[in-house]
Amino acid sequence: MISSIKRIRFIIKQSAYWKKRFLVLRIGLYLACIILAFALSMATGIFNVYYYFLDILKIVIFFSMVMATAYFIVGDKEMYVNWHDRSYRNKVLQGKLVLAVLEGMLFLIVSTAILGIFYLSGFPYEYEQKHFPGDASTSPLRFSPSSLEGLLFAFIIVLQVVALFTSIYWYYNRCWKVTGFNKYKKIIKIDLIRGLVPLIINMLIWGLFLVLLDQVYFNFIYPEAYPNFHFLDGSIFSTQPYLYLLVQLGLLVAFNLFYIIDGIIANKRRTNFIEIDPLTTVD
Description:
Layout: H1 2-14, H2 19-45, H3 49-73, H4 77-81, H5 86-121, H6 123-131, H7 147-175, E1 178-182, E2 187-190, H8 192-221, H9 236-239, H10 242-269
Antiparallel strand pairs: 1-2
């Protein structure tokens, strides 16, 4: 435990040179991700708390993977020289993973606090009255899951929190390859194609595909409010929406198993974590 704390402090010290750049990155990501989360929540769930937490954790994973990328490329000569050593590499990646997850959890706290401010201001209810006048039961803001759906919601949220760790673990162990060290910018050179393609794919999975599935779920419950998915009318999901939650639960279990199993295999069997460039100087 003490060793892990020391490692995290060391990584924070490594990133001191990039302190201002990290601040700019955080501000940009906070604005982009909060706008995305609130736009989706307003357009689909009308700021419904259940829908918000169903979606926000997916966006937290998206946010954390970007921060994981930033933390990965911040390093020093020692990190480059010792990257071939599995024990050293695992300790460094553990610290970087923890920092990326902490960044994501901080974003979750900030975004949830902003949602609370929205509720205190009364804006969700004003928005509801404007778009769903009359019968409040037709408004997604009033949605409350059944006991079964609530249990499935809880499992989905837990699996998304688990995916926050497993996705970054896999991302670090399977995708990144060090190719050099820039002593002037104090960054680790990486194989961009190998690292960024999986990042983009994961962003599409968490920031688009699974979020779209959440919108489909609310369409099943409030079909008149969301006319975009009428091609699903008459399906078994339209009469038993909880089945959709089971589908998403299965997808999340599959994603987590893939991340952790393939991540462990990569950590044990990969031999190309680093590519030594004979023209690269680390002095």
